Amino acid sequence: MNKDIKTVEDVRNIAREKLKGICGVYKECDGDPNRLCQGQSYGRALGIGGIGSGTSFNNNFLALRKYNLKMKLINEDFSPDTRYNFFGKELPMPIMAASVAGVNSFGGENVISEEDFCRSVVLGCRNAGTIGWRGDTYTYSLENSYGLNAIAEAGGWGVKIVKPRDQSTIMKFFNKAEEVRCVAVGIDVDGCGSYAMATHNKPVYKKSIEDLKELVSSTNLPVVIKGIMSVEDAFAAKDAGAAAIVISNHGGRVLDHTPGTAEILPSIVEELKGKIKIIVDGGIRTGYDVLKMLALGAESVLIGRDIIRASVGAGIKGVQIHMEYMQKTLAKAMRMTNCKSLQEITSDILV
Ligand SMILES: Cc1cc2nc3c(=O)[nH]c(=O)nc-3n(C[C@H](O)[C@H](O)[C@H](O)COP(=O)(O)O)c2cc1C
User: Does 58 reside within a domain?
Assistant: First the structure.
């Protein structure tokens, strides 16, 4: 790997070249209708954009933009402590890579192989001290699960999210995840709206509380339910025994016209803070965005599209550079808003 690649900008410049025609690697990744990735869903594959009009994708970005940070500077100086404990693992930041799968959405083998993509996310995150989550798509099977292979290579340092396939297949994936000693497993319940699975004849289902209970009791690992966008679903996930929820609209890829995740987060926090781990994703691009989500009550966050670009740009190193940048910008934001540790972050810092 080229030694001259040092900054996020270096990585993104390479990604911009490699993703020509797919993603503009713009200064703002906002799901605006005029972006290269948008509108493909009116006939072509979804690509890296949002579904339909792109409103859900755009709403994630806009919801975060509604908040600003309150500077509080007249007090003692300090270096913020950004450390976060995730299911017993000490991470340097409350920021992990989202479960993204399917390089065919961003150029496929011409750009990066599924294997290299998974390895770069999992190993790049590990090099930065944090955790890469891995997803699931129509090209994955029990025999060929690229995400779990990468997590196995990292000694289990990863989280595996399985699409809401039939119960027996999910349980087999969970079983394999236990074998490789994953940190946690889960399903993206919003994956029942997956465009990719539907167009490749891979059935995915809505899941009942009983289904979720069965999945939770089938494994010793903590179970994460991803794709929660209502208080009702958050309670259902908790009642099913999930250890964590991810408030997510899948980056705006499964249902047009959903609100931004930052709009939904406070209502779920109000009901369930302290009763279940609350994680959020969607439109988070810098540590400043991370701080806003933490101030709204999330415990940690996931990064989707920016990690795709980091991985395409410079593989393992690109992902590491990106995660270290996220930690640095979070630390800067915490110092300027007078938050010494994650526990000190409250909604008081939002204006
Ligand atoms: C190309 C692409 C593929 C994705 N594949 C999955 C997947 O396999 N499983 C999953 O849980 N989420 C998947 N997601 C959603 C992400 O995990 C995450 O929720 C979303 O990207 C966060 O929004 P952001 O991209 O604005 O950061 C995918 C997202 C993209 C853009």
Answer: no
Strand partners, 100: 134
Cα(79) to ligand 1 centroid in Å equals 32
Specify the pLDDT at position 40: 64
Question: Atom 2 in ligand 1: which residue has the minimum CA distance?
Answer: 100
Pick the residue whose CA is nearest to atom 15 on ligand 1.
250
105 lines ligand 1 (CB under 6 A): yes
Q: Is 187 in the pocket of ligand 1 (CB under 6 A)?
A: no
Q: What is the pLDDT of residue 41?
A: 55
Q: Is residue 72 part of a domain?
A: no
- The CATH number of the domain holding residue 206 is 3.20.20.70
Please work out whether the CB of residue 227 comes within 6 Å of at least one atom of ligand 1. no
| Distance between CA atoms of residues 18 and 249, nearest Å | 27
Where would I find the H helices in the chain? 8-18, 55-65, 114-127, 146-153, 167-179, 195-199, 209-217, 231-239, 261-272, 287-295, 305-336
Residue nearest to atom 5 of ligand 1 (CA): 100
- Say if residues 224 and 159 touch (Cβ distance below 8 Å): yes
Q: Is 24 a member of any domain?
A: no
Q: Is residue 204 part of a domain?
A: yes
**95 CB under 6 A from ligand 1?**
no
pLDDT in tens, 179-212: 999 999 999 999 998 878 888 989 999 999 999 9
Q: In terms of residue numbers, what domain contains 91?
A: 84-349
Report whether residue 98 contacts ligand 1, using a CB cutoff of 6 Å.
yes
Are 128 and 154 contacting, i.e. CB atoms less than 8 angstroms apart? no
User: Do residues 311 and 321 make contact, with C-beta atoms less than 8 angstroms apart?
Assistant: no
Question: With a cut of 50, which residues of the chain have pLDDT below it?
Answer: none
- Total domain count for the chain? 1
Supply the residue whose CA is at minimum distance from atom 13 of ligand 1: 100
Query: What is the predicted pLDDT for the residue at 39?
Result: 75
Bridge-based pairing of strands 223-228 and 244-247 is: parallel
Please tell me the pTM assigned to this model.
0.98
pLDDT value of residue 26: 96
Nearest CA to ligand 1 atom 6: 100
